[in-house]
Amino acid sequence: TDAAEIINRMVENKTKVLYLHFGFGSLDTHVAMGPGSVTVVGARPAVGKTTFVMNGLMNMARAGHRVAFVSLEMKGESITQRLIRMLTGVPSHRLRLPGAALRQDEVDKIAHASGQIDALPLVIGEQRNQTVEAIRRRVRQEHHRQPVDVLVVDFLQLVQTEKRVVNRNYELEHIAYSLFNLAGELDCHVLVASQLSRETEKRDNA
User: Fold this and answer.
1) What predicted TM-score, i.e. pTM, was given to this entire model?
2) Has residue 18 got a pLDDT over 60?
3) Which of 1, 31, 40, 179 is deepest in the core (most CB within 10 A)?
4) Other CB atoms closer than 10 Å to residue 70's CB: what's the count?
5) Rounded to whole angstroms, how far apart are CA atoms 157 and 192?
6) What totals of helices (H) and strands (E) does the chain contain, helices first?
7) DSSP structure string for 25-77
């Protein structure tokens, strides 16, 4: 394609969002998350990568981007509790208590947050022990129903493949490549959380 033609399309198509924004100030100036690309958020265990990713997907959903969140670690109820906690500030342990234990102001906050979540272009899928092939099929179906702008997968090391291989590193490469191809196929952005090994943590602390 001629470069001038590409530039003309970019200039004329002012309604198309060329880059997604994570919603974290200076980070957005350094990380360009465009359609057809993949971003990996890597962190050690238990440092808050899921919370970080969920804050980002909420910001993108608020901006009008349709987000599909696939969690291989949490059930739908736990995901919703986290979202409500983020919006209300009500601690998780209080959300798990019977409704009578909540103060009226907390109940009002939760009801308002629930309405906000329902109004967002956000699809939540709990897919424990799922293969990358199954995720691709499910996201394609959802995209066919209504285009998906962002796919968020939490997290990479829990994804499997239909054909088991002895070398786990090779399997992870296959999974990452499959998600990259899916991003190009659907012209969406794929955001993947990835857990760094504890060996890396020990080495860095040494």
Assistant:
1) 0.83
2) no
3) 179
4) 21
5) 10
6) 9, 5
7) TTHHHH--B-TT-EEEEEE-TTSSHHHHHHHHHHHHHHTT--EEEEESSS-HH
